[in-house]
Design a protein that fits this description.
Mean pLDDT: 91
Helix content: over 70%
Shape: globular
Strand content: under 5%
Low-confidence stretches: none
Distance between the termini: 29 Å
Largest sheet: none
Order of helices and strands: HHHHHH
């Protein structure tokens, strides 16, 4: 299970919204959270996907979250949704249901219960092309 790796990613992405996260910081977080090589590879892949597709993800968040434009989404919630979008849209080996569940769990741990429902709603809308939240 990649829960610890996802939480590590969350911390790295969250921190990067306030100050550029360099390789040294990332490696420090990997050591601190005791990630194995497989988890490090997973994290590196997600970070690369987010780096390559961030504008696409931000546009999708703007489109699907009418209540809050991407720039106004709480940084913790945005960080969680970036991880989930990378998995859902670009990592076919991870079931969508797992990505949604992990996103809600991370939100419950690091944000709020309302954030968990908001995140799940936005992500569900993004993947189904359904109603905006």
């Amino acid at each position: 299970m990649r829960t610890v790796a996802r939480e590590t990613l969350f911390k790295i992405i969250f921190a990067s919204q306030f100050s550029p996260a360099d390789k040294e910081f990332k490696e420090h977080m990997y050591r601190l959270d005791k990630l194995d090589d497989a988890d490090k590879q997973y994290c590196d892949k997600v970070l690369e996907i987010i780096n390559l597709h961030s504008q696409e993800f931000f546009a999708l968040l703007d489109e699907k979250s009418l209540s809050f434009p991407e720039k106004r989404i709480y940084p913790a919630d945005k960080s969680i949704m970036l991880i989930a979008l990378a998995e859902i849209l670009y990592m076919d080996d991870i079931p969508v249901k797992v990505s949604l569940n992990e996103a809600a769990n991370i939100a419950s741990k690091f944000s709020s219960e309302k954030s968990a429902s908001f995140i799940t709603g936005v992500l569900s809308s993004a993947i189904s092309g359904g109603n905006n939240v």
